[in-house]
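Data deposition worksheet. Section B asks for the primary sequence of the deposited chain exactly as it was used as input, without tags or linkers unless they were present during the calculation. Section C holds the resulting structure in token form. Section D is free text for depositor observations; keep each observation to a single sentence. Incomplete worksheets are returned to the depositor.
Section A, Depositor: J.P.
Section B:
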Amino acid sequence: MKDEWLKVFDEKHQYIRNATRTEVHQKGLWHETFQCWVVTEEDGVHYLYFQLRSKSKRDFPNKLDITAAGHLLEFENIDDGVREIAEEIGISVTLDDLVYLGVIKNQIRMNDFIDNEHSHVYLLNKSFNWDEFHFQDDEVSGIVRANLEELKQFTFDHNVESFQVEGFIVENDEKVIISKMVDKSDLVPHHSSYFETIIPWIEKVFK
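Section C:
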């Protein structure tokens, strides 16, 4: 598989040079990503959607993650990141459909994998039927949603160790409905400050 080339920045988000994705993650170089969270409202309750990463993914297989996200390549700008939504979950939108939340320093450190991202975060506030989601087999294997208030309690109250999700996974080309409790071990290990920042950003949109 050909290695992707990314733009490298310093911690203050100033461009430095280009580097391969492998080098970026081996050395913990700062780079840009696009992130989009899908949120919907039903009967006054807000739900946040997570994708289930495919078991064939190189990084964090079978973990719940941001609804749609991806690296911005060396020749791409922020607008180009919208492609990730269609590629990963089969939903076609434009940048005008999204609400820009801001840039967050998103860090993950595990053994020889160091991910330091300047992540451009967007929100897609729209209701979907489960049948509208379609996945690439090598990218995503399911989609679930969580009550935003329950996720908030899980994030800020250390006595709350799990939250409920509902949705479906694809097994042998069939959609299997699921509803279960999940905990930190089920999530991509973003730094705790990530959700502590993202959740207030999302809540502010609805105030």
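Section D:
Residues 9 and 15 are 4 Å apart (CA to CA).
Helices lie at 21-27, 83-89, 148-156, 192-205.
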